[in-house]
Amino acid sequence: MERRYSERIKAGYKTEILYGNKTYTGVVENISASGVNVLTDELDPGIDFLPDENIELKFESREGVPVVLKCSIMWTSKIPPHNIRHRIGMEIDETFRDRVDVL
Question: Where are the domains of the chain?
Answer without folding.
Answer: 9-102
